[in-house]
Design brief:
The complex is a heterooctamer, with two copies of chain A (257 residues) and six copies of chain B (232 residues). Chain A folds into two domains: 16-148, Methane Monooxygenase Hydroxylase, Chain G, domain 1; 150-257, Translin, domain 2 (Methane Monooxygenase Hydroxylase, Chain G, domain 1, Up-down Bundle). Chain A has helices at 4-10, 14-58, 65-90, 95-98, 100-122, 128-133, 150-173, 177-197, 204-232, 237-244, 253-256. Residues 1-14 and 240-257 of chain A have low confidence and may be disordered. Chain A has eleven helices and no strands. Chain B has one domain (2-231): Methane Monooxygenase Hydroxylase, Chain G, domain 1, CATH 1.20.58. Chain B contains ten helices and no strands. Chain B has helices at residues 2-40, 48-56, 59-74, 84-106, 112-118, 130-153, 159-176, 183-207, 215-221, 225-231. The longest helix of chain B has 39 residues, at 2-40. Classes of the chains: A mainly alpha (257), B mainly alpha (232). Chains in contact: A-B, A-D, A-G, B-C, B-F, C-D, C-E, D-H, E-F, E-H, F-G, G-H. The structure holds manganese (II) ion (MN) (2 copies). One manganese (II) ion is lined by residues 112, 159, 162-163 of chain A.
Chain lengths: 257, 232, 232, 232, 257, 232, 232, 232
């Protein structure tokens, strides 16, 4: 407001001034929107491909286990190197948070798939640290290493419990009765972790809803374990182990059961 | 008009201050509840005595916070119900936790008076609303089916019998109340489903003749009186 | 357990009795409100003095009913806010009616204290909650655009000016309050729309140069002090 | 697994601290906005120069608070948008106030860059998001019909012409933007209604041949350059 | 429970007993349902025809007024003698209330049409008593005279205000400026009647909602009157009356205006 | 017009009086239902004969209240369905209780006519609506799975067979009805789930060869004709 | 203009007529479905061949009604999806019935094309939407656990094996579809629970060594090819 | 079974592809609409012929895009209504633009058939749904009051008469439709308000005797036939 005279003058031809101003704004908005569109697309591709990996895992049986796990790992590597690196290359500085809503769903689904594959392979929890190690060589537009932030990671892990529930139930459906107990302990530990994590942080509706869904999934797994246990309890243990031999897809069941 | 509204502003601001204080205390209460709740989670897989012990450690925090609530309300006598909504949900969860832990230890129902003692609410500034107490009991009832399912999975076969007896007593007791068609009535209807679910578990255990196989195990979970003495 | 629940039943039943009493009184209050409201309807077509006169006749019924409310609450001290929801809406409407009639008569705002006097609420068992008073004022504001529109149709062209001045004072006064993002805040935003609407009517009147044509008529509608004396 | 979750908690806790700081600053911002808004109220009855003058006095408080916001964000570089929701609404209102006052003084649009200068946001830690700027302009547009109506009522008959030209330029300018079906799009649709309302007022003035009767009055309201010099 | 022995016996062949019992129930339910279907159909026909009468009224202009009003009255008589008498003939005794939900919408719409026609013809309110007089010769299945009950009547009258609002606004749209003021007074009186009617009776959501809608309609009419008045107030009265001559469709406007 | 509306008011007021009377009777009916229901609770743990005996003691109270309902309706002939909603829910629960007790005693279905006899409804002022009767049967069906589960738990292994036959007959009988897509249809779908649950219990008993082990116990639960004679 | 709108009115009225026709046919379809469903009920206690035979008798009614649907649609070519909601639910139930009966007879899955043949839908006016076909298969899957439980109760011990093989094939086939998170995916998840339930029954039968005891009985239930020939 | 489901998967995936294609075309359609709309903006201040000319330049883009829509639908014959929601809103806006421009040029209503010709929709793969056409006309009606107000402000005094005649014809035509109480009826009610507003402007112009002063100006706005010839 230092130069009112100049402004007064400008007001005489407001149309031109306004237009040039707004053309600048339009350019900026368009650039952002186009970038957002590209991110949404990359995210959607990452989601679809990750979902396919998850479907693959659900299709595993004793015979196909080795082959399909290898296939899943190759698929994950492919998602990283194509879709996620496309996301990384679009971002720099503040855009990482500004456009998060556009790409976050894809990353979450990727976390879900990656942690599921790791669990099926090793029976262990893929930590955020280890997950981010797989991105070490991926750089964003300003050549900063790309990482998945803790919120997206946790949201993805929240969904993981849904897939684990499916695994536990279809394990029983396919006669692999030990799977459910093994999965149950793991999900109980996950739920406990989440409970303590958010004890003094209110992460709003999203997280509360996810916690509720997790609990529902956990209860479904527990009920499955219960029915396996109760049904099995009528017979001598040897008989059961017999009928279960070599049917497990998750490693380490026998030791834990 | 301005002058009058100036005085209104002061009055409203005062109640805002009270609400801020309450909100801050109740937010701590929330954390304490979540922590105690989390402490009980191991109940669903491993040893329950340790879980109960750990959970009970959080009661003193409840006492501290309810004392603070009482102090705030001392400054606005007669307005307990004006601000009731601030702590209503939390108090119901506190009742749930206390009565659940009490049942785990002693197998009986924590009375309304005992709740107030446990929370150090002897002064009359603050008390536990009766409906909140009853809703807290409903919450406890809702938790029991899951507890029973996990206990049976862990081989504690006498648990469903004990829970089914407790729940049917509780159900009969609630029937004494003249509940109108309101929220409490709906919650009470939930007890019936909990009971039904527990009866089904009992049925599963009974029909397989499992009940007698676990007397030994059971005693280790329903902690002995000696152990409980040490906890207190 | 039975014994304890028997005592709970008594406590719950007592509160049910209180609620029944309140409900019955408040239902009468509802009727009184509707009657007073209906008495004001002629305001929108013919003479307003008669309507005001008739409407004021219902205030004594309000006094009677608020006295009864006070008596019921005397039996459960400190529980005003426990049962607040029972009369909240009705009280807001009462405030609306009283403050509207008062404005019609005197052109100024009925204060919080004046409301309580009009309702004979000098005892401390019962009072008008401040927020209810303010929401009642918002209700009055919401009625004014319709009033102004009908007055102008009836040829009372100075009405919009008076109302627009009153409403912008009221709007400024509400601005003094530190309203948080709650229900009252939303209602207050409504005053702005009422004001805008009244300003548009004032604009219509002004731009057509009608303002000076009605000074004579207006005096017959805003009743003279003499007439009003007789009403009281 | 516990260890893992402990590290998650640390990361999350950091953001909680930032949020607390932001909330406190933004609450002050709210007060400053309310005060500046209140200062503009007299605009609708009496002299506008004084109101503008008084309103502009609050801009320095905005500067102070935005500087504080910038300082908080300096501690978490690149995370402007992580916390954007905290100040979004307030910033849009600030834009509204600044651009409205600017239009009252100079009759033109305050550009995005000028807003940032006015708020002392030359550093790169903090800036005004472009969409917030544009929504702020929509808010200003929404205020103009009421302003025009009141100006015409006060006899300032050239106001609708000026506003209608300004708004149709603004409307055309917004059309340049490639707005998708989102919030901003809806707000922009609102400008059309504002323009329509102003055009109707212009029509009323025009058809009555009032436009030329007020040139003298108008000049007192759109303050002369000299007067404005003194304001700064 | 006086003959347990007989019952015990019956229990031996439960299928047969149950079937014959339920066949009786089925017959009763079917009869009621079929009657209900017929009523719904008759009611729907009455609704459609009444709506057509209402549309007809809205199509009235100065030239067509006489013809169209006569047409409307003929249509109303036809609805009475066909659709409504079909309703009446189905009902007897408790069925009047039992099946009310099935036929009530049609009656309400008929009330709406009949009161609208009467209002356009005479400017007066068709009372329930006078309306029921037109049904004097109509008998229900037990030869009792058929009547419209007060609830259906009032619900129909509630909707009438919506049509009056349309009349007032399109009156202005067509240059018949007096109509709106005349209608306004009428609707104000109706609204006052309803207000006092329900002052101590809570007729639930339905009526409260209808009252709200009535008020909205009334305010719309009042606003229309206002804009007519304000616009007209700028000019000498003679000029306005001039421009209004012989354009009214509602009688008695000039006297009331 | 006022006169007209006065006559409307008279007509409406009459129905208000009837409603008040009905409300009071139905509230007593509610209590009677609650008591009879409570009397049946022991059925799920201990001896059923005593429970049935005690429950039947409440039927006379039902008779008394339905007689009162009939008397109120005598004053407004042909208007049974105008006020139907007042007692609809309660009557469905009464049917549930009566048909359940009857099934416990005789193992067959209480017919519509028998219900009316039991409630002393021979006069034509009052009767049991057919749909209410059918919904009451659905309620009974919903109770049976729980009953079966508890009976088997108590070692009464022939219970599921009897219930499964009864329920599949009932299900087939309902299929005869031409249910449209309404409330009754949904409730009827529930019978299918009840049947499925009972069939699963029967399966459990069958596959374990338990059926023949309990014939002796069963006879003590399904009371003998002699015992039942004494009950009446 | 009038003329044009007169023709519009005709077109709008025509679509109302089409809807009326569809509603009437679909209501008959509902009855036919109910009858065929009822014919299948005996399947759960006694001989299945007769039930299948009787059920198949209703297919010709389906053909008749789908032909009528096709004729109606012939009058409005290309508008299948405009009216799809009218027959969607019913078609899903028809698929359920046809595929269930087919499985009972031949033990394999009725293909999409076979469904259309069975319903005489060779013309292209009418067809079975693919999603409706798949949802119909989910409905069939949901029925199988109950069927298996009842068969085993009736001593047909080889049934669970056959059903479990069929269901796991079906489950595997659905997994090919890459279903996104919508209604169909949820229904597909249900197949897993059905499979789980059947697996549990199979487990019960296997572990008790019952599998080989029933080959003789089983053959009477899965009807021989000769018998089936006669059915067709 | 696998093979069959593989083919199902392909079919489901194909419909996803169709939707993707439609979405992309419709997004272009959105841009074309925005551009044509923008081209019409100058209509409200300066010369209309140029604006009409410029606006009509966008019609070929519509043709191109609707042709593309038709081609996509050619690949899935009979599924127009399956995907109708994708282009419904846009088509209504296109109708609005085309019929508005047509009225500006020729003063009459663009018929349903003419719309389809203008959009090159002679093939039968794609057409304009009748309800969409009618809603598009409502949109045009809603625009006319603003157009009239601005024309009169600009001194084109014969415009209200022309618009009022056109709108009352349109209103009468819609009344032929016997619209039931749905979305279209509500939109049609809006035409009445548009007509009322235009009538008021006409009244203003008439009563001030302005009608004859502008015949000269008017001819410049309603472009002469010669000029229009050149446009085509
Ligand atoms: Mn998932
Ligand atoms: Mn209507």
């Amino acid at each position: 407001m230092a130069e009112p005279a100049e402004k007064k003058q400008r007001a005489m031809a407001p149309d031109a001034t306004l237009s040039s101003q707004f053309e600048k704004y339009a350019a900026e908005l368009d650039a952002t929107n186009e970038k957002r569109e590209r991110l949404v697309k990359a995210s959607r591709d990452a989601t679809i491909s990750s979902k396919k990996v998850i479907f693959l895992i659900h299709r595993i049986n004793e015979a196909s286990k080795q082959t399909l796990l290898e296939q899943a790992e190759r698929d994950l590597a492919y998602i990283r190197s194509t879709h996620i690196s496309r996301i990384a290359r679009e971002l720099q500085g503040i855009e990482y948070w500004k456009l998060r809503r556009a790409y976050s769903p894809g990353l979450q689904e990727f976390v879900e798939a990656a942690t599921l594959v790791e669990y099926c392979k090793t029976g262990k929890f893929l930590t955020l640290e280890n997950l981010n190690k797989t991105f070490l060589e991926m750089k964003d537009a300003s050549a900063t290493p790309f990482i998945i932030n803790v919120e997206d990671y946790l949201l993805g892990v929240g969904d993981l419990t849904g897939e684990l529930m499916r695994l536990a139930i279809s394990g029983v459906a396919n006669g692999q009765r030990g799977v459910s107990q093994f999965v149950c302990s793991f999900v109980q530990a996950l739920y406990e972790g989440f409970s303590l994590l958010f004890y003094n942080v209110d992460y709003g509706k999203d997280m509360n809803k996810k916690m509720e869904t997790m609990l529902q999934n956990l209860v479904k797994i527990e009920t499955t374990c219960y029915s396996v246990h109760v049904r099995g309890s009528e017979y001598p243990e040897s008989m059961i182990v017999d009928s279960l031999e070599q049917q497990d897809i998750v490693p380490g069941i026998h030791t834990s059961f | 008009m301005e002058q009058q509204f100036e005085s209104f502003r002061q009055q409203l601001d005062e109640s805002v201050v009270v609400r801020e204080q309450l909100r801050s205390i109740v937010s701590d209460l929330d954390s304490a509840i979540r922590l105690m709740h989390a402490a009980l989670l191991p109940l669903y897989h491993h040893s329950s005595i340790e879980a109960i012990h750990k959970a009970k450690g959080h009661i003193s925090e409840f006492q501290r916070l309810y004392t603070k609530l009482g102090e705030v309300l001392k400054s606005c006598p007669g307005e307990y119900y004006r601000y009731h909504d601030h702590w209503r949900n939390q108090t119901q969860q506190v009742i749930f936790l206390l009565s659940f832990v009490n049942w785990l230890e002693f197998g009986n129902l924590l009375s309304h008076g005992e709740v107030e003692s446990l929370l150090d609410l002897q002064q009359k500034e603050f008390f536990v609303d009766l409906e909140d107490y009853l809703i807290g009991l409903c919450n406890m009832s809702n938790e029991l089916p899951r507890y029973v399912v996990n206990q049976v999975t862990a081989g504690i076969y006498d648990c469903p019998k004990r829970v089914s007896l407790f729940l049917s007593d509780l159900y009969a007791a609630f029937r004494i109340l003249n509940l109108r068609n309101d929220f409490l009535r709906k919650r009470f209807d939930g007890i019936k489903y909990d009971l039904k679910k527990v009866e089904e578990v009992l049925y599963d255990v009974q029909i397989r003749g499992l009940l007698n196989t676990s007397s030994q195990l059971a005693s280790t979970v329903q902690p002995s009186t000696d152990e409980l003495m040490q906890l207190q």
